[in-house]
Design goal:
- The protein is of the alpha+beta class and 795 residues long.
- Helices cover 44% and strands 15% of the residues.
- The N and C termini lie far apart (70 Å).
Amino acid sequence: MTGEAAFAMGQPRSASYRPLPGIPDEMVGPDGLIHPPWRRLMAHLDALSDEELTRDLARADRYLLDSGVFYRQYGEGQSVERPWPLSQIPVLLAEDEWSRIAHALTQRADLLEAVIADLYGPNQLVASGQLPAALVAGNPEWLRPMVGVTPRGGHFLHFLAFELGRGPDGQWWVLADRTQAPSGAGYALENRVAMTRAYSELYAAGNVHRLAGFFRAFRDALRDQAGDRDGRVAILTPGPMNETYFEHAYIARYLGFTLLEGDDLVVASDRLMVRSVQGMAPVDVLWRRLDGNYADPLELDPASRIGTPGMMAALRAGTVTMVNALGSGVLETRALMAFLPQLAPELVRAPLAMPNIATWWCGTASARAEVRADPRRMVLADALTTRAPFDPKDDLIRAAALSPQTLALRLDHGGGDLVAQEAVTLSTTPALVEGRLVPRPMTLRVYLARTAEGWTVMPGGFARIGASGDASAIAMQDGGAAADVWVVGRDPVPAISLARQASAADKRLIPGGLPARAADNLFWLGRYAERAEGIVRLMRAYHMRLAESGDAGAGLLEGFDPLFRQMGIDPAAPIPQKLLDNLAAAIGSAGRVRDRFSPDAWSALHDIDRSARALAPRVAPGDDAARALSALLRKLAGISGLVHENMYRFVGWRFLTIGRLHERAMGTAALLAVLCDEAAPEGALDLAIEVGDSVLTHRRRFTLDASRATVIDLLALDPLNPRALRHQIDGLREQVDMLPAANDHGALSPLARAVLRLHADLATADPDSLTTDALWSLRGRIGGLSDLLTAAYFP
């Protein structure tokens, strides 16, 4: 059958799924027949009603939303987190075609390794004239301090990506080599998980090759590079403001590596060390996700604020393996592609198995003559650009748009600064747009990782899908989408997981050292979350009193004022801005430790933030506000359960718990100082019990009405009341005592001594001794613990 007929056969029954004129090229072979994998997908879609298809696709979108998958979009002087734009139709490739792609890219990876080894080693390619010196020496990605540095392990390249394009005739080309710090592998994983939600039955029976084996092989290769079981593998990220930070955190969590920023690292005695709360700890393998020239402000870019001074010294000493080596960005230079076809026979003993897009460096007379001969098929760009074709930020010039005189002038007087590439037409793949299958241009990103057995190729990757028929709208920054890529075999494929086979030698791994930055953010996450809960409890009590008494309760309502001032709350807003600020701060702290924060807790934190911001402009004072705040309080309790009940009890959990206990202790001391003061209005003691969430406990423990003595006993001195000040100090003493270097064979740190004094004073106090002044003094001493903690663990 013809491609047109095949596409029509795959059309769902609903008339809304009629294809636009033209069949997507990826679906049809040279013989005009639809590829078998696509037949199965089209039959699956055909069997679904509109409602069933909408339901299935919504599962994928819901998964990405709940997991917080995003990328950062830049524009107009600001950056915004955008939901991951998933194309809901996967790209399907047959197993035999994928094998040819994998073979060709493995050859290209070996070629690039040979080129970079020469550029930073003997430099024979430039000396012999096979590469122009200007493309190397004048290239900002060629890092002179790396010359003569032999990487530990012997290889410059460990993890690569290639941008591929395909013509309507089925010919694949390499559009760009990604050797600097390739992104997207984590997003490929998330695409796959989302697609399995949408097409669970089709995927399970579709002989689709799994991705986990690729990541397992690379993880094990990096751990082998690290050496013994105590060797540390880390991922270096520019930080949360990077456009693909989500992926950095996701990969770190998925592979079990430590996520670090430049400030987390220091070089001492030519060893790369991480500042952890346990002290300095060596890093053996560093998978960098920032551009090489930012890595060391001492020897590379002095303006860098995200690097680590001395990084080059550690590389020279061979004490750390860098993935990929600094300076590998030089291989991304577009003009270099003009020379790779000629270098391949010499360096890898064979012609390129997959051509790159036809490229001419205009620094030679022959190349300039090619451009002049047929300008209609040429585009011009900066010779040293590292952007891929079809990048919307690429400053391309169509040679045919210039007059012959202007073109000749540009080529003759600036040819060395220009590269010409053939203008190509990309093949199309199906995309679901407003309920219709339409053809859209596509590029494919494929990943390779070095293992002990050589290069391994991810069986899939992800595709960029154009937002329209215009190939220039492929990039997600310009409205494009990302699609999962399925490599479909003829036979069933094994179910592969990330876990290795168990053996008698396997032991439980001890968690690695906690970076000081991560500990700092976990501590403040605990504080911000607890502070938000305190604000909600106080505001709920205020609006319940307002609903019950109105103006008649003015005296009691005025009793809230000292607490409002203490917490910076404007009571005029039922959902105060201070609450929204604390939720935003909690999200900010959690965002800095995404590799250590569970996706469920992250989703719950964002959910309460969205709920609070949605309620803020439409909640009325009084009963309406009290009910809204009760709903927020229940959500906060859910977050507390997710974080504190499910998080592994390693040192990170301790800092999070210390932050929560610290903030609750300060809040409780202030609450009691204000509401148990002799000048407090009538009803203040009952209010303290309510805000302290101890109404039922007070009724059971005391048969009397609330008095100052009973309230102080219950909310300050009772170690069994989880809301009591004593309970918080008991918890602080327990957690601080287990921190590194807090209790070294009986020698207490300043922090541990301060907590012990607080504990002793509170344990020996009675209600009469806890006067208003004493409570304020306790609050000040509790606040001082934060400074001692910072000095000891967050320098």
